[in-house]
Specification:
Elements (H helix, E strand, L loop, with lengths): L7 H11 L1 H5 L3 H15 L2 H4 L7 H31 L1
Helix pairs in contact: 3-5
């Protein structure tokens, strides 16, 4: 028999739970930001299903970075548009 792979959503919640004590030590503002990071990883459930990774946090962090990269790209594009309009 093959190895049982935990459902992707369970892995994400379990990893989030591992960081619960650290989260509690943060300010309210930082706790909200921390929660948003894990929320960003949830956006990629379909892709995470294909990863039976030995270090789940690595996959979660990659998806958080992916979402941040997209956000930065959007911000940069908006800045470029505003600069072009100002000329």
């Amino acid at each position: 028999m093959g190895r049982t792979v935990m459902p992707s959503s369970f892995v994400l919640e379990a990893e989030n739970g591992r960081w619960k004590e650290l989260r509690k030590s943060l300010s309210k503002e930082d706790q909200q930001a921390f929660d948003r990071l894990f929320d960003r990883a949830k956006m990629h459930t379909r892709a995470r299903v294909h990863m039976s990774h030995s270090w789940p946090l690595g996959t979660i962090l990659l998806f958080i970075c992916l979402e941040h990269e997209k956000m930065l790209g959007d911000i940069l594009n908006k800045l470029k548009e505003r600069e072009a309009e100002a000329k």
